[in-house]
From TrEMBL:
Name this polypeptide is given: Nuclear receptor coactivator 7-like
GO biological process: regulation of transcription by RNA polymerase II; response to oxidative stress
Record-annotated TLDc domain positions: 57-218
One Gene Ontology CC term in the entry: nucleus
Amino acid sequence: MRPVQQSIKILYYANKSEEPFVEIVTVKQQNKRRPSVCSSADSESDDLLPVLIDHSQILNEHHLEQLMNHIPVRTQGYSWKLVYSTAQHGTSLTTLYRQMRELDRPVLMVIKDTDNQVFGAFSSDPFKVSSYCYGTGETFLYSFSPEFQIFRWSGENSYFVRGFLDSLQMGGGGGPFGLWLDSDLYRGSSYSCSTFCNRPLSLHHDFTVRDLEVWTFV
């Protein structure tokens, strides 16, 4: 049953000495989140799934249910639009940057490796080449390998994201990166880092990318 919201509506005053006549108006509280493309009218839980404007090679309803509960509130209730996909755009970090050149909103990276493990990162800023680290404390790493876990900012440093022409780095602190990808978006690695205090996102520290997608919220 959906929660209800009550509001008090004063209809009139009988006279100056009497209490006003009051009516309790009950209004159904609207769910601000949009239904999933695969939702049914009878499924209450499906209402919480986002609309995917484009087809995903990786994400299923289980992934969406978990991720939807952890992305920042300001990105919830929006449809998800595919900005970059290795299946559509080829395997190139340069192309990934180019696809986000005009973007000014958060992005969600989703990776599926050759072990069929799904993991990735939410970035408060679109990925770009930069001479410095960028991003905010909204940035996090996550993994479904073997069960869903999310690794938020530890507060120890601000090495959220840094983009080079030959690699993309997330997390750090005097050692390996929480998530690292090469220029071909083919080889990657994931180690524990002080930025997110994460465990390795993949089954192995070094992994090979099968599919990679980056989504934004519109």
